[in-house]
Structure formats: C-alpha cells, structure tokens
Amino acid sequence: MRKFPLAISAVALSFLCSSAHAATLSFGATTQSVAVDCGFKLKVTQANAFGTLQLVPPPAANADPIFTHVCKKGGITISNPTSALAGLGFSIDCGTNQFRPITGDGTHSGITLQGFGLAAFNCYVDGFNKGIVTTGDAADIEDNRVTNCTGDGFSLRSTVPLNSQNLNGLFINGNRSINNGGWGFNIAASGIDAEQGSFFFNTANGNGKGGFLIKGNGNTLSGGIASSNKGPGIFVVSTSCCSNITGSQDLDTFQADNNAGPAIIYAAKDDGSNSGLPTGFDSTPGGIDVTNDGKNASCPAGSVDPTGTNKEICLKVLGKPCSDKALNACP
C-alpha cells in the first residue's frame, strides 16, 4: 500500500471540531479532530500536502456521521488544484470499514478525487451514481469496495499520455465492485498497475454493463476476476505501438466466469512481439481462466477467438502491424 507520509496542517475551520469525532487529520506528532459528514470537501495545499484523513466507521461509538445516514448530495471530495510538477499528494483512509458503508441515494459520487497524487484506502461505498471517481494521474486506489451504484462502481481517469516524462500511472489494487448498474471498473488512463491488494484481487461481480472497461496504453493488468456481469468480463483497448516499449502492456492471470458477454475482448496494435496477436496479451496456457462466458454473445467483428468457441476470448489487432518507422519513433 503506497500511503503518503503523515504531514498535514489544518483545513477549513468549518470542519474543525472537538476530539469527540473519530476522523483525524494527522500532521507531525499532532492530530486534529474533524467532523466528516456528507458533502465534506478538502483542498490540498502546500500546508496540508502528503497528509491522511483517517475515518473510523461503525461500530465505534464515535463513528463519523457520514456513516450514519444517506448522503443526498455526494459523499467526500478531495481536490488538488496544484500542478503535477508540484508533486503534492493526499490520502483518505476509511480504516476497518467493513460494517457500514458511506451510502448515497442513487445520485452524485461517493468519493471523488480531483487532481494529481490522491489516494483512497479501505473505503466501502454504496448506492451512489458512481462509487469512487478519480480525475488525475498518480491516483492510488486500494482495498476499496463499491456496491449498488446506479452507474459505474469505479470511474478512473487520467489524460497524461504514455510518452510523457511526467507519467506516473494509476495504482488500482485489491478493489471490489459489486452489483453496480454500469461497469464495475471504467478506466481510461495509461501506465495502470492493477494487481492484488492486501487481501483481494480487483474483482467485478454482477455489474450491469460489464466487469472491466480499460482504455489506455502501457498498462499491467494482473490477477483480475470478473464474474456474473451482464456484459463482457474485461474489455481492453490499447492504440499505441509503443505500449510494450515505453510502458509494459500486459494482461495475464485473469479469471472470468458466467459473464453474459465474452470473457475477454482485447484489442491492441501488433508490434511484432506476440506472434501476430495484439500486443500484451499473455497466451501462456493456464494464465487466463475462462468458464461459461459469452453464452449469448459472440466475438465482435474483426476479432478472433483462439479457443475456437467464438464467444469467450476475443482478440483483435487494431489497424496494420506496427511499422519499423513507428516503432523507432517510440521514446
């Protein structure tokens, strides 16, 4: 878990309260109490950068009020208006949040992280429009659970291109997305590292549009599980000839079972490293485990299924194979 160092000063006075409240802002050897309720907002500054907002959920007697009722106008928003070059970060940690979620009324978002270097750990979000939303590079999303949202469980975005010297990527480890109306994970970013967290793989179960939708380049996706989703288990699109040169495009050790759509739709360029298949798909026997997928759906046009069933694993090469000129132009 990539937690930031605990170094933070006070935020807006309207959020300060007595020590009766569980949430704390940590700075140096001192902690401050803070009342975290629906609509809570915190802005990252030079003064409070690299700190942690630590929540305590029920059954603690002094549980934060955000866990005690439905949030009608959103949950928690952390924003970092500084540029990525400043390198400032901040994290929210919901502690041992396994008893009661931050709950919404089907609208807004549960946790929103706007800007560079923001992190969410151990949070349980239920019943918003979107569960956890990020809109910046270097986000670190680990060991969270999102359930029963009307839209996507996790909506994670970064616009930093693969060839940027400032690319940090996203860290998405050990999260669970269950029974949401959209995609379990809807991710558009480059440099993603998605692996096992402290206890779980990234897991998508019972989501309305599908398990994982991932658009970007140079991404490492390992150990995901998609089951009983109403669309594809995982849908990956990578459009760069440089994904395996500048980055490390790779999908391996993925498990998909009983999804309504194909288990895997994987579309990428052919850089010559994968025997005529799209770059970064691990075809090693045993790495990809698929059971009872695509019962009512075949592969999209232009894709091929190496299993021969035309409905479980769908691989598609985008465009023509990468030329030497294109490959030589990669950073």
Folded structure, characterized:
- This protein is mainly β.
- Helix content is 2%, strand content 34%.
- The chain contains one helix and 28 strands.
- It has one helix at residues 324-328; strands at 24-27, 30-33, 40-43, 51-54, 76-80, 90-93, 102-103, 109-115, 118-121, 124-126, 130-135, 140-142, 145-147, 154-157, 171-173, 176-178, 183-188, 193-194, 203-205, 210-215, 220-222, 225-227, 234-237, 250-252, 254-257, 264-268, 288-291, 313-317.
- It has a ten-stranded parallel beta sheet with strand order 3-5-8-11-14-17-20-23-26-28, with no helix packed on it.
- The longest helix is centred in the C-terminal third of the chain and has 5 residues, at 324-328.
- The chain starts with 23 loop residues before the first strand and ends with a helix.
- Residues 3-19 have low confidence and may be disordered.
Write the H/E string, N to C.
EEEEEEEEEEEEEEEEEEEEEEEEEEEEH
Q: Give me the Rg, rounded.
A: 21 Å
Q: Which strands sit side by side, in order, in the main sheet? A: 3-5-8-11-14-17-20-23-26-28
Fraction in helix? under 10%
In DSSP terms (H or I, runs of 4 or more residues), the helix count works out at: 1
The proportion of strand residues reads 25-35%
Oligomer type: single chain
Overall 3D shape:
globular
Number of discrete domains? 2
Class by alpha and beta content = mainly beta
Biggest sheet, open or closed, and with what strands and sense? 10 strands, parallel
Q: Runs with pLDDT <50, length 5+?
A: 3-19
